[in-house]
């Protein structure tokens, strides 16, 4: 009202008392002759106003119709406001005329709608009747019974309430018996044959329920800005409606994918000309394509055979810190099936965790709600990053009255998030809204009756993990993994040893990484078995494989650049050094990324004779861009991403997380999701992909030769890292549209030119401790006696050779980079003066074995680059010097 500055208002008697103060600036007020008995409460107006009927009785027919400009605004429709402030959609004279085109009469149709003025024309033209509800959502069910509609449309919230009622009232009955009993209730009267679900996407479970109780179900699709877009009888796109898809790169949807996916844009004869009083939003949402204006719906869809399927909602999605997109509606539909949960809304909490705010049907499930959500999330196939990490229990249901539902019954997501997001700043896992924001942090009493963590385990965790020292109640964090607190493998080993000492129970470090929560660890210590989550590996591969994008940029002659991921990693920085003379683009994450790359590069060339040539090349031919490979479009702007598509011919993927203890789920984002994004890039411009994989994918497979496609028969024998690398390999091999080369690398050893070592290598860490203590044992089982080093410079120079001859290579090739023979610890340390002892106590590592049953074949690699060398005494002296300087 304030935005429109209205001069004339037609208003219901039910609302006049509430809005009389706001209506003081209105020149003329006319009351609608509705039924006062329909409302539970009416505030009588302070003044007398004329009514519609009284004016009609006194009016005269105009002598001739007025001639109106077709562009004259005639109607402002307020949107629901479910994604923000309600917008005022302009409907002009021509739009209304288009809505009143004559049509053939049809059978009698009686419907009920919450707004008479929006979509009455087709129904009235076909001889139907429309009933208006009483204005009270609480009385809507009574109104339906009174009207007995033949057709009824409502938002998913309404249909979900019916489904929950059905489950509650028929609990314990067999399905068919329950269906027949609920049919007799006639919740929609006795004439309704078909229903429309509109306003938002609904779950298949709700549709199945409605179908089983005898209703024909149609998903309605339209907007206030465009009118209806599909035929409610057939599901086909309406005549006169033109739908297109445009790329939505920030969410990973592209028109040229198969099936074609993107943001739905629409053009109709009934389309609005824009938003009243908001030119900026109009220009943003109504776009010009080849001279025609289209409206951006904000929906992500597929269009197949003239039918539209909505698969996502752009406005609701958010990105996790791991770079994964989360679609709240998908999670809500899956978790709303949990018995006892009435309503649920997912949003991104203040601490960047997936947060669920919910209302409960039964208060007695409060104590188990987090466990129920965890269990059902896994059961419904949600990814680990999609599972809510924090629960807020609302003190009252979401209703139209409290503003948490819009007037048409849709979840008012914007208002819910605004109201509950401040509560998510707490580090508690479960928050009850009755707690004030101030005392949430101080409240030590958890709603959930969590099993007590023993004092012994609590002491171990507090002494080992600095991030939990100041958490007052250990029971607040029992649903978290130990690794959630930033611990590394050294701390995990320490915890493992303390558990052995305290409980006399053997839990090695690898097993410790498998516990999904501290609670699960405590249960294991209490004698319960560890039940591991089953992973459907074929599904993981299908999800990682990208369908071929048909966009080709081969016509660009300047496609001569190399895109390198992982140039700050140990292997990646030597690959960069080896690319001298090439045009290289490095994508690097984090702050101060340029300084980090420069510092890393200088370290690799400090002992090289022609150091100056490398520096000149780096400054003139190496471009550094801040980005993140695990994010869609590598976290880059659309402009930069498209420039890469048009200039890059080779991609080297040497990034990812190398961690032999963490499980597959924890490595998924960095090692699998990132590969999917690289695959997509290569498909879109036919780049040649060199993927630096790992020989660990062969462990337990009895495969030694350079076989390209490794079967999954042994995958459950692998650690999480090897599993993630194998799934990534399978995704690359299974994707079409580009050449690829799999480079399975073993243990990258020190650089023979600079002596630079990998500080994360367990072998280098062990050697550093030997040098610090100046004692060594060549007989003890505590030390690795055989070390499978392959010089990192040998690997990088081999890769350069492959790049130089990539046009001659097959569609898919594979090379193994392992050692021909193992280096003995004694040989590597022969240049040092060390005290030999029988036993050492400064180095403790689990699972050390001196037995290497068989070394993988490296036949292709030897043909490419010659035999893999062992380190000479001078080269050993160089890298041992480097270790002394850095430890």
UniProtKB/TrEMBL annotation:
Q: Name one Pfam family in it.
A: PP-binding
- Recorded GO MF terms: ATP binding; long-chain fatty acid-CoA ligase activity
Tell me a GO cellular component: endoplasmic reticulum
Looking at the record, the residues that make up the Carrier domain are 443-529
Write out the entry's keywords from A to Z.
ATP-binding, Nucleotide-binding, Phosphopantetheine, Phosphoprotein
Name the chain's protein.
Answer: Acyl-CoA synthetase
**Which organism's genome codes for this protein?**
Entamoeba histolytica HM-3:IMSS
Q: Which domain of life is it from?
A: Eukaryota
- Magnesium found in the keyword field: no
Question: Phosphoprotein among the record's keywords?
Answer: yes
